[in-house]
Design a protein that fits this description.
This is Alkaline phosphatase family protein. This protein has seven helices and 15 strands. By secondary structure, it is α/β, with parallel strands linked by helices. The longest helix has 14 residues, at 231-244.
């Protein structure tokens, strides 16, 4: 399997790693996306390349391989690695990311999945993670990367919302798939990852802190997977962001086969949950759903996300981009 050089530059990113800037520029570009079927044509890779991103972040469902057979999952990853457009991106751009349920191995799956240890190693192989990396021995694929330049810095915090996640509560009273657990029951991140995340945010000196969660954090009424199914965990995350004093926090998410911005105010600072989904297929029959935090409109075209971070102005352009270099929706926030 061809490995992708990306996470080999773990921690402080050195300037020789792929598309890294020379340290004197004032902007940093992140591209991200989710929900990518390896057996379907992805028409967006050429559009991603036009933005010349410094980093590509996989947001989950990077392949569709709902299986407990390691050889099948390995074959599915190999098929994705050989896709022409992605192969070019992976050779020119640092690639990092997390998984979601379909590349984890089981739809809506969590801690109960019997092949999660083998699945973790295959996922890390896909990203080209070094055999000596801490994630090779530690449970879960969570990690962080800090990109430092003369003009500013960015910390990208990658969460694992699968490995430790306890049971969901089916909703047998409506047409929704799930309903929130009893407050205080269950976990998304597990104790070890929560302790790690608290240190990552409280100790961060970065100008911008980007949190990648495969599932949505703010939108919590639709009845599919969301942090809202564990309301105490969602509250804990928002309170941690608020209390940590971490600067320029932005949440990225996927999973939903639609793209949208959700937004709340935290003591005068915007907290945006930028959902980008999907890359090869979307929720084409979408007719609306409740989201009290929605900012702008829902996009159901195939798309990927772009963040253009400006260290000098402390502004961030957030772009939903589609095929043919089309801007489907854009907002700008100041931090």
């Amino acid at each position: 399997m061809n490995k992708i050089v990306g996470l080999a530059c773990f921690g402080l990113i050195i300037l020789s790693c792929k598309s890294q800037k020379n340290g004197s520029e004032e902007t940093f570009t992140i591209a991200f996306g989710s929900c990518n079927k390896q057996y379907e044509e992805n028409t967006l890779w050429d559009d991603v390349l036009l933005y010349k991103p410094d980093v590509w972040i996989w947001g989950g469902d990077n392949i569709y391989s709902d299986t407990d057979e390691a050889e099948k999952m390995k074959s599915d990853y190999e098929a994705q690695l050989k896709q022409k457009g992605y192969e070019e991106l992976a050779h020119s751009t640092t690639v990092i990311g997390t998984w979601d349920d379909h590349d984890y191995g089981i739809n809506d799956g969590g801690a109960e999945f019997k092949m999660k240890k083998e699945s973790q190693q295959l996922f890390l192989d896909f990203l080209g993670v070094d055999k000596t990396d801490v994630r090779r021995e530690r449970e879960g694929v969570y990690s962080s990367e800090t990109y430092r330049f003369k003009t500013g810095s960015v910390r990208i915090i990658i969460l694992d919302t699968r490995y430790f996640r306890t049971s969901l509560t089916p909703d047998n009273e409506s047409k929704k798939r799930f309903k929130p657990n009893v407050y205080g029951e269950g976990t998304i991140l597990g104790n070890a990852q929560w302790n790690w995340l608290e240190k990552e945010l409280k100790n961060s000196e970065a100008d911008f802190n980007i949190i990648m969660s495969s599932i949505q954090v703010l939108s919590d009424k639709h009845g599919f997977e969301t942090w809202g199914n564990f309301p105490h965990e969602r509250d804990r995350l928002i309170n941690l962001i608020k209390e940590s004093s971490a600067r320029g926090v932005i949440i990225l998410s996927g999973d939903r086969h639609i793209s949208e911005f959700s937004k709340i105010d935290l003591d005068g600072q915007p907290l945006v949950d930028f959902t980008s989904s999907g890359l090869t297929h979307t929720y084409t029959s979408y007719k609306g759903e409740e989201n009290p935090y929605r900012y702008g409109k829902v996009i159901k075209d195939k798309s990927f996300g772009i963040l253009e971070l400006d260290f000098k102005s402390r502004k961030v352009n957030m772009i939903m981009a589609g095929d043919g270099n089309k801007v489907l929706q854009k907002i700008t926030e100041s931090y």
